[in-house]
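QA checklist item 7 of 12: single-chain prediction sanity check.
[x] sequence parsed
[x] length recorded as 92
[x] structure emitted
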Amino acid sequence: MPFKIDSAIMKLDDESGKYDLVDPDGKFNKKDALMVVNSDDFITMQLVINAIIRNDFKAWRDVKWEDDDSLKAILVKLGYNRDEIVEMLKEF
């Protein structure tokens, strides 16, 4: 079963120049502070979490991580191809 991160959308109000929380389910209406993450990074984090859950961890020890690698590069280094990443995206 895939792990799901609770999320909402922050939308820029063109008139005020401020962000509004779009939270139709009310998951965050009583929170004092929220963290905003770029949508591409959020998807990458979700994919990495699901890859961790699905992986046997041996592959993680074999990954050669460079200081200038992006987080997105880890999926490729773990051996996931495009079709597998698409399937993981469909899970959430």
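[x] summary fact logged: The two ends are 10 Å apart (CA to CA).
[ ] second reviewer sign-off
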